[in-house]
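#onboarding

Welcome to the new folks! Below is a worked example of what a typical request in this channel looks like: someone posts a single protein sequence, and someone else replies with the predicted structure as tokens. Don't worry about understanding the tokens yet, we'll cover that in week two.

Example request:
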Amino acid sequence: MPVGVRIDLPGATLEWYDEAIATTGYLPGGPIASRALSHWVTKTDDGICIIEVWESKEAFKNSAHQKSDGIVKEIGIPGRVSIAFFDVHNYLPGRSTRI
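Example response:
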């Protein structure tokens, strides 16, 4: 069953996010991580918020562990990360290749 993930990063900026994405090897426009179904980010009043849909909670946890190690080593993580999971009733996938 697909699971939604909300990642709040108080203190983070969109510039930090762009650097974090580059550190993990991803590019704007995709493609996204294996077993991830969608990903987007927005600026909030106190940082950024990332929303993702994954095949399962386990798929997210396995990938997040690998991604976060590289980010922490290269650029660090500003502030305290808050992660919340939610059930997904339906999702519409984007493109599977980079535009």
